[in-house]
Amino acid sequence: MSKSSRYAVMLAAMTLAAGSAFAQAPAPAAPAAPPTMTKEAKAASAKAYFERCAGCHGILRKGATGKNLEPEATLKLGQARLEKIIALGTDGGMVNYDDIMSKDEIRDMATYIQTTPDVPPEWGMKDMKESWKVHVPVDKRPTKPMNTVNLKNVFSVTLRDTGEVAMIDGDTKKIWGIVKTGYAVHISRVSFSGRYVYVIGRDGRLDLVDLWFEKPTAVATIKVGIDARSVDTSKFKGYEDKYAVVGSYWPPQYAILDGLTLEPKKIVSTRSQTVDGEYHPEPRVASIVSSQAKPEWVINIKETGLIKLVDYTDIKNLKETTIESAKFLHDGGWDATKRYFLVAANNSNKVAVVDTKTGKLAALVDTKARPHPGRGANFVHPKHGPVWATSHLGAEVITLIGTDPVKNKDKAWKVVEELKMHGSGSLFVKTHPKSTNLWADAPLMPEPDKAESVTVYDIKNLGKGPETINVAKMAGLPETKAVKRVVHGEYNETGDEIWFSIWAGKTDPSAIVVIDDKTRKMKTVIKDPKLITPTGKFNIYNTQHDIY
Ligand code: DHE
Q1: CB hemisphere CA count around 305 (13 angstroms)
Q2: Nearest to 92 by CA among 346, 366, 328, 302
Q3: Within the chain, which residues score under 50 in pLDDT?
Q4: What pLDDT does residue 79 have?
Q5: Which CATH class is domain 39-112?
Q6: Alpha carbon 284 to chain centroid, angstroms
Q7: Taking the CB of residue 175, how many other CB atoms lie within 10 A of it?
Q8: Which of 69, 95, 187 to probe ligand 1 with, by most ligand atoms within 8 A of CB?
Q9: Contact 324, 305 (CB under 8 A)
């Protein structure tokens, strides 16, 4: 039996001890004994918690992007209050679930999070090796591209709820191929050569897709853990395509793999003390980026607030530089020079800046609540020089941070401007070196009109104020119950189109809206019955070269 099925069985077994009658008792005013629930309700809630809640609140429910949900905290809130929060969301960025969960499911979840958290099993080298499959050995792969697709302008599109990626030809706007990947697939990253796409699913399954076949083809797969979010590759000269590195949420660890076959080479645990000196049993791996100036990855450990610079030249004698920053680290990106890496510490309302040249923390920048940049956006501000931008989960602004400590020293690592946007609940900002637009989405806004819209600024004339565009309306999709959240702008290779996903329910029609960047008008809507819950989109050229 696989470990993940053992986990499911373990959850079921734990639920057996949980009692049989669902208690509809009034909410306790002070910490009390956990409420009971049926074993079926507990098993269903455990599954739903893992699928929908663990990403923000942690498997052990210790909290990170989301609040701590251990019984000490949840019993104080009580059943009724918890149900309300789950149903309606909060201003702090917790999304409402009443559009995708039934009243009974919400009630059970509120009860479930008042019980003691389940602890899943570890996942070591033996498990990884057993899960590892090379579908096409390296010597059986093409020696040149076997298709005529402009690979630089292909978009690897996450189809979140089908566990697939759609490779869309950016020139023709047609789906070139669909590849089966892990459960609730999360992001794609591209090898230095631009040939391979690495796709990570939330179930820890990593797929290696080769773009040189006639159709995009998965050539290797491995399960690196039970819960994962991030992946990157080695990009330094002499190490191109040699290694992949994958960060897991559970077990808390990162794994170094062979870049062409995904053979696991090394696993490094991230359990340690936090920046405050307290031990944390679940410090999850958040964003990972790969330096092109050094043989090094920047690996951000969420709960500890520690940033690891991992030198991969000798993985048997691995060198890690550990930089103290702030909690809880999440997503981030390079500045335009690619010397500095900026990462959101979303529980501290800060952005941490790492100088990868000196291997030290350059700054901790105070921002408004809960910065969430994706990879951020770099441009030259007319007044303040080079800046990097982030939007926020908890504030209606786009924050601009100066990034030039040489010619604009007084502005470097300071918030030089906050641009008003149409909502908080924003996940991603985006621009392109060839564009004069700065875009930000707000998919986690509870108000449908806001979640369906984006803010766009002219970066040459920021004083003019923003334009708010309802992108979901441009798609012309039929009315359904689910909100058509507009998420994740991504430019094409030439930087004259920006693509946004319409992220609706699994059974609702979805689309990708392609906007002409100059006119800000809809250019094309990509619709296809196979395009189910599209979310992240990764243009091969831009992802390969860290262009944002
Ligand atoms: Fe993500 C990036 C974690 C939910 C779409 N997301 C990231 C990164 C992390 C992360 C750590 C940085 C990866 C890197 O750069 O190496 N995401 C999490 C979560 O823990 C969270 C909050 C909850 C969960 O249960 O997973 C979460 N993420 C989501 C979504 O629900 C999104 C909107 C839709 C989806 O398909 O899952 C989503 N996350 C994305 C995207 C990126 C991302 C598109 C990459 C942005 C980029 O431009 O690089």
Answers
A1: 22
A2: 346
A3: 1-28
A4: 95
A5: mainly alpha
A6: 13
A7: 16
A8: 187
A9: yes
167 is catalytic: no
158 CA to middle of ligand 1, Å? 11
What are the structural domain ranges in the chain? 39-112
Q: Say how far apart CA 152 and CA 158 lie, in whole Å.
A: 18
User: What confidence score (pLDDT) does residue 191 get?
Assistant: 97
Which helix (DSSP H) or strand (DSSP E) does residue 14 occupy? Answer: helix 3-16
Q: Is the CB of 427 under 6 A from ligand 1?
A: yes
The torsion angle over the Cα atoms of residues 437, 186, 362 and 66, rounded to 10 degrees, is 100
- 545 among known catalytic residues: no
How many whole angstroms separate alpha carbon 224 and alpha carbon 222? Answer: 6
* CB 367 within 8 Å of CB 409: no
Residue 316 identity: K
Can you give the pLDDT at residue 66? 86
Determine whether the shortest distance from the Cβ of 286 to ligand 1 is under 6 A. yes
Backbone angles phi, psi at 348, to 5 degrees: -105, 0
pTM for the whole structure = 0.91
- Complete DSSP assignment for 362-395: EEEEE-SS-EEEEEEEEEEETTTEEEEEEEESSS
125 is catalytic: no
What is residue 51's predicted lDDT score, i.e. its pLDDT? 83
381 is catalytic: no
d(CA 67, CA 50): 15
Regarding the beta carbon of 230 and ligand 1, being less than 6 Å apart is answered: yes
The 3-state DSSP composition of the chain as helix, strand, coil percent (nearest 5) reads 20, 40, 45
